[in-house]
Amino acid sequence: MEFGLPDLVHIHGLWRLWYAQVACYAGRRGIPVVISTHGMLEEWALAHHKRTKQIARWLYQDRLIKAAHCLHATAQKEAATLHGLGFRGPIAVIPWGIDVPSEKRNGKDGDSSRFAIPMEKRVALFLSRIHPVKGLDVLISAWSRIWVNFPDWILVVAGDGDPGCLAEILE
What we know:
Elements: E1 9-12, H1 17-28, E2 33-36, H2 43-47, H3 50-67, E3 70-73, H4 76-84, E4 91-93, H5 102-105, E5 122-127, H6 136-146, E6 153-158, H7 163-170
Helix pairs in contact: 1-3
């Protein structure tokens, strides 16, 4: 079986040298590159391993981001951060959205019925890694004040991460 060149390369993340190698490979072959930064250029993220990231930005990372045909941000705040860092190329703001088929909502896909969500309920979904920087504590605090005004809605928190963080928030 022979494979041709891809029509597009979509890189999910930064900082790994092999992401840079993939971007260079695509660039040399005229293949458009889209980069999803996944919040990795937010101030708090840049502060983690700060010196290493400063060196990576100077050596290759900023140049690759500027050369991308498009950047993918999941929120306007992330797009504003990218603009604030001097990236002027196109930025597509596309939130992570999912549709849950009704058979999954009814628990008919073999999952435990404890996760079944009544069909008459609307769902506010927090789908993320459970970590203090994700703002789950703010969401839970806000939801606790407004949920009584929205009886048709249910808040669902889904994600992997730090179990201690979730336990602390729910205390």
